[in-house]
# Entry
Amino acid sequence: MRIATAKESYAADEALFDTSTQRLWLALFVVACAVFPFVAGEYWLYMACLVAIHVISVTGLNIVTGFTGLVSLGQAAFMGIGAYTVAYAETRWGTPVFLNLVLAGFLTAAVGAFVGIPSLRVKGLYLAIATIAASFILHFVFANWDSVTSGVKGISVPPANILGVELGRPFSLYFLIVPIAFLAVFAAANLFRTRIGRAFIAIRDRDISAEVLGIPLLRFKLTSFALSSFYAGVAGGLWAYFFRVVTPESFPFVYSIFFLAAVIVGGMGSILGSILGAVFMTMVPEVLKIGVGVMSPFLTDAVALLSPVRTIVFGGLIIGFLIFEPHGLAEVWRRIRRFFHLWPFKT
Amino acid sequence: MSDFDWLFFLEVSLAGLGSGALLALTGLAFVLIYKATRVVNLAIGEMLMIGAYAFFSFTAGLGLPWWAAIPAALACGGLLGAVVERAVIRPMLGENAISVFMVTIGLGSVLVGAVELLWGAAPTQLPDFMGNAPVFLGPAYVSRKIVIGFAVAATVIALFLLAFRVSRGGVALRATATDQGAAYSCGIDVPRVFSLAWVLAGIAAAGAGVLVGAIGGISPAMGVFGLSALVVVIVGGLDSIAGALLGGILVGLIEAWAGTYLGGEYKMLTTFGLLIAVLMVRPYGLFGTVEIERL
# Structure
């Protein structure tokens, strides 16, 4: 049972973290994240970096899908733009890492806003289908604009280099990727305490009402697309530094579905949900891999089963969460928290 | 352009018409589901794939002759439609359209995984049951498979249209599509109509799958055909059967022309370019009902 959390000022009520318990846990989490690379092995650092990249991208997708109510199935293609921008800038111009990432973000934001233009005429499912089309067209551009993207061969990216320190291993990249992920998540959480974020939520809940309230729909919808794509672009840029080779096949349509699945599994319209969803969806294939490892002495072709089983589990998770837990892991988390808050009185 | 090869153009167009008929058949399955249940079924390509693989099992696996295997494959398709409707779509009734749409994406993923698990990931050929002798329409050469595919698809579509006009189930389906509440109060068992629509769509998809598989071979990736079908129904209008037919022919022709004159990689580009153009100019397609929203 938690007591004495009465809020005495508007500032306290609006605070991002409103209880001291929350702040304590957050501080512990930050410390844990800072200590993590020094205790964890290479594999776990690799996974942590990948999770952080996915967290950024999923948070971005949640801004447009979960908070603005515009379904986008182009997130992977947007990440591709970011990755190609970084790859191009790094190989042709050799510009600094942070400049590349920001450039990737802004370029992707511009493309994202452009892709969002059909939202002028259509919404809902039609918009989702328009983003599918956009993602296939972008894939075509990646594969065929040889002078910039080197076609199907792709581009090899040299390791990121900050002030003479080469970030080649997951250990050093961790210190680049994870802080950016933190920054991105905090920015997103704060966004929904501002006028712009509130406008997004109003549009999601009822766009006509929002317009009546004086929110220019097109401008805010495009802003939402641009913001979400900015996140995707930065995530894609980090992806390029992380995997160090960018090809058109790096960002298939399934990857977009993966991000949307992560938003659903985590919880639409919840920042915490974006984090949980990204972590969960990234770790599930790894758990399956471990499961296959356990099974391999008993099953002759367990390794061959991995890919189909992964596809089935992936689809099953989407269906299962939508039917049984439509608010996602964030809601599960809330229930657990509530249980502890009310503990001796209501179980 | 005096040296433009009209005969070749005609042949390409005929091939396009053939694949257009298959697209129209798939589009019909899609429209059936959308009309009755308002579900945008992105798993239609995967349902088609299951039909093709079922046919493959019955012929190559069990050694059935093709005239026995086709009804069996269609039955499998219908069963799949019924199971999907019952297990996945029914619980989602009344949820917002986007959630249901996402459920069908998940369903597609499950079906692809199931096919890889049961039949392996390698592409295969369906046993040949149509013969290979070329067909000449006037001077133009057309592949025999495409002619048969076109004929079958056209017949099936005509049968479906007839069934909608005259049969009891067809009328119930149209009534449900027009006004669910009114259909209920006329004594139509709306949940059964939903099942019926999914079963019929499953059958149509399985039939299209057998034809597509016979022409292009089968693989776990053949569900991509469903994306072209999606373009077809968007162009034609999500709830218009006539639109699916016209859209199918249109997309089939455009894909054939783009694939021949621009190169295979431009096929997807032109298809989706067409999709975006239609969405911008006529968001509800050529014949779709314009949805009017009121506060």
Observations:
- The longest strand of chain B covers residues 135-137.
- Chain B has eleven helices and two strands.
